[in-house]
């Protein structure tokens, strides 16, 4: 028969005759069901996914409520996470808005193309960006609903678009005016096509859209006079 260690209750006051068996600590990542090496790789992916969810929820909430009325709590609820996670990654609402509205348009250097192709190149670039980058569409919605978003969009054009236009503009001093006119075409079509979904604008193919817009943008870029 197998021998059993006597119970503490068998002899009152007696010390146990065998030391309790020490169980090895469970791996810290056991709850995840992952080996340590796999966890090291998974953590950055989870962090990236969390940040992406927060930023997506923030853009939608800022667009719907405006900067002043949007709250960290509402954004966290939309992202299905705890509000403390939003604070952990972005500090406060101002920091979150700055991250959510960060845009890099990667405007092409128009000096690398024939002068008479500049308008078509610029329009094609922006149409392709609108169709593959949801951040631009989200910030368009934010820009038309609150001043903070509008100011961010103005900053993007001032910092990233005007220098590109100035390089091909026949009258460099007119670059700000010409940039505003070009914005009226590119942002105006983006609003109609990607935000308001006006049927004729939505139904145009990419090439048709570029063919209609490019001549006007070309004139704004390179015409000597209005």
TrEMBL record:
Stretches for region Disordered: 1-29
PROSITE patterns membership: HTH_TETR_2 (PS50977)
Keywords, sorted A to Z: DNA-binding
DNA-binding region of this protein: 71-90
Ranges of Low complexity composition bias in the record: 9-29
Domain spans labelled HTH tetR-type: 48-108
Stored Pfam families: TetR_C_16, TetR_N
UniProt xrefs under InterPro entries: Homeodomain-like_sf, HTH-type_TetR-like_transc_reg, HTH_TetR, Tet_transcr_reg_TetR-rel_C_sf, TetR_C_16
UniProt cross-references to SUPFAM superfamilies, sorted A to Z: Homeodomain-like, Tetracyclin repressor-like, C-terminal domain
MF term (GO), any: transcription cis-regulatory region binding
Protein name as annotated: Putative TetR family transcriptional regulator
